[in-house]
Amino acid sequence: MSSEISSSPPKYLQEEEALTQECNALISTLPTRKGWWASHLYQYQGFWYLQALISCRKHFQLQNCDIFLVTSPKSGTTWLKALVFTLAYRTKYPITKNHPLINNNPHDLVPFLETRLYVDNQIPDFSSFPHPRIFSTHSPHTSLPETVQKSSNCKIVYLCRNPKDVFVSLWHFTNKLRLNGTNSMEEVFDSFCQGVSGYGPFWDHVLEYWNLSKENPDRVLFFKFEDLKEKPGLLIRRLAEFLGCPFSAGEEESGLVDEILKFCSFENLSALEINKNGKLSSGVENKVFFRQGVVGDWRNYLANEMAEKIDKITEEKFNGSGLII
Ligand code: A3P
């Protein structure tokens, strides 16, 4: 598995020497734990995650109609990016053989704020971004730039996924990213359950956005990977309305909804040459973002007691919230 990554790790997986003095000074004060692929995870504002977001918090300039796609890692980010990009820019980029997704991985089209745009101490130039701008992040809401946290105009779409599938997907993914051998499942299972995973604790991440979506449904749309699999037509229509670009009668009649769903499906995207053999600018191979794309694959990996342990944590953490995943 480890042979699937380039010899030089992406910037956001590199260690302290790639960081500014300011970041290093802050990091030196933070509690650390062993990382899943890079050597450390740092705890910042109650969450474990890689620290490049600090620069983004400082420099990001919000525009009112900005769209933020938020997920905990391995919850379906790649799929969400493809769907929202295709949906929001469907007039500018109709589905043809020249559509940007044919030759670009979704992560290149909708870049992460913290692991792509603000890495390497750069202040990104957004002038070539189409409007509305679409960004993605794994950041907890409390770590987003304050302007985003306070804005009532920007839109946040949060996609969550069953934690057992997230854990299994994360285990596969991080083993592919590791340069030195693989983590045993047992080794990282306890970390995940204790909340020590990138941007974790997983449950706190989900719950924060769930609560925000309840408080302000016009600003935060919360939905589930499993529902998207089960009733994709309903959810993509909801997504289009939320983003202020509902399907017209003509689009409905022409079958555009199904066309977008098929175009962004696991089968279609994973079979594209760019996703079979291409790499992100960070050097990570595009194919690592496409594994099975199904619901319930955890059954093939987790012992009963592991599944029960995750279920118990989920029940306790979400108790009283109304959220069931
Ligand atoms: P599995 O490892 O369970 O297969 P992320 O995009 O957040 O990194 O999540 C990756 C997970 O989403 C992987 O799950 C991957 O296979 C799945 N995935 C990627 N593209 C998908 C798509 N178009 N439809 C459904 N699932 C997809």
TrEMBL record:
Belongs to the sulfotransferase 1 family. The lineage of its organism: Eukaryota, Viridiplantae, Streptophyta, Embryophyta, Tracheophyta. Keywords: Transferase. This is Sulfotransferase. Residues 66-322 form the Sulfotransferase domain. Pfam families: Sulfotransfer_1. One of its GO terms (molecular function) is sulfotransferase activity. InterPro entries: P-loop_NTPase (IPR027417), Sulfotransferase_dom (IPR000863). It comes from Handroanthus impetiginosus. Its EC number is 2.8.2.-. It comes from the Eukaryota.
